[in-house]
């Protein structure tokens, strides 16, 4: 009986230790962690695909010309970035996901479900939220201390920050325009 209790205790402790390690990779509770190269590629690629797919929806469902134009801008800019990311990842042996991460699938599904009357507002808010997330992600990756280990990937992230910040400002302006 004592042996079974020891095994069970060891199993629970191991499970807790492993789950704690996995959780710390997904959140910001561990400021000492270095972002993994593959983690960045996966997160950035999914974020990029979200903005392309949302942009396509805006082109077809947007009620306002500004929404449709911003959507087309996202499709063009983020398609080019996706191509660059794929080329770099291929050279380095990293995998570029072909599907959205669950959080991005949920955001896209919410936008797809928007009624005609609410689409423009939801799209503009999603663009603000997704670009804030992308700016944070690319900033973290570009930093030498806490960023990704690969120098080329750090440089890639740093080179994309000005455009992402510009997209964020444009998204905030769009959100203001569609609020009325």
TrEMBL record:
Entry protein name: Putative membrane protein
Annotated coiled-coil segments of the chain: none
InterPro entries: DUF4142 (IPR025419), Ferritin-like (IPR012347)
Annotated source species: Sphingobacterium allocomposti
Residue ranges occupied by any DUF4142 domain in the UniProt entry: 37-174
One Pfam match: DUF4142
Domain of life, per lineage: Bacteria
Gene3D superfamilies attached to this UniProt entry: 1.20.1260.10
């Amino acid at each position: 009986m004592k042996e079974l209790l020891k095994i069970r205790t060891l199993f629970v402790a191991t499970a807790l230790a492993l789950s704690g390690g996995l959780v710390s990779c997904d959140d910001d509770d561990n400021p000492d962690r270095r972002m993994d190269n593959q983690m960045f590629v996966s997160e950035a690629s999914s974020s990029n695909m979200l903005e392309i797919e949302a942009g396509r929806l805006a082109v077809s469902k947007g009620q306002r010309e500004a929404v449709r134009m911003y959507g087309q801008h996202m499709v063009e800019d983020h398609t080019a970035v996706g191509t660059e990311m794929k080329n770099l990842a291929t050279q380095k042996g990293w995998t570029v996901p072909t599907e959205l991460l669950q959080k991005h699938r949920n955001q896209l599904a919410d936008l797809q479900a928007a009624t005609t009357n609410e689409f423009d507002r939801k799209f503009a808010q999603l663009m603000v939220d997704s670009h804030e997330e992308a700016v944070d992600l690319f900033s973290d990756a570009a930093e030498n201390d806490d960023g990704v280990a690969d120098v080329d990937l750090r440089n890639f992230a740093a080179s994309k920050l000005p455009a992402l910040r510009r997209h964020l400002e444009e998204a905030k302006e769009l959100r203001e325009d569609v609020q009325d």
